[in-house]
Amino acid sequence: MSNTKNTEESQDSQESRNSQSRKQTDDNRSTKRPGPMEVLRQARGQLAELTGMEAESVSSFEQTEDGWALEVEVLELERVPDTMSLMASYQVELDSDGQLTGYRRVRRYERGRADARRSGGR
User: Fold this and answer.
1) End-to-end distance of the chain based on CA atoms, in angstroms?
2) Calpha distance 21→98 (Å, rounded)
3) pTM over cut 0.85
4) d(CA 56, CA 63)
5) What is the pLDDT of residues 85-112, one digit of tens each?
6) Is residue 79 within 8 Å of 86, Cβ to Cβ?
7) What is the CA radius of gyration of the chain?
């Protein structure tokens, strides 16, 4: 009977340690900040959900004091030929956890057009 009681206490103690270990692991996961790739995925997904337009590429990505800043290229209006489709650049801001805090369209252009460059450094 004594052996059975000791075995039960040992099992209870082990279960308690396992439970505490799982809780600590879960706590560490919840406080861990997302890495750059996870932030990119979150930004693209959140922008698509809000605008209804899928991101085609990310042309700018940097960490800021408050979180992250991205410039995302999206297809706004598909045309034929494809080079005449309308694209847009969106400036997207996320907090340090990767949650979108704001976005705005900063440029709209035809897919086939290059940025205008001034000659002679003007």
Assistant:
1) 93
2) 27
3) no
4) 21
5) 999 999 999 999 999 999 999 999 999 8
6) yes
7) 25
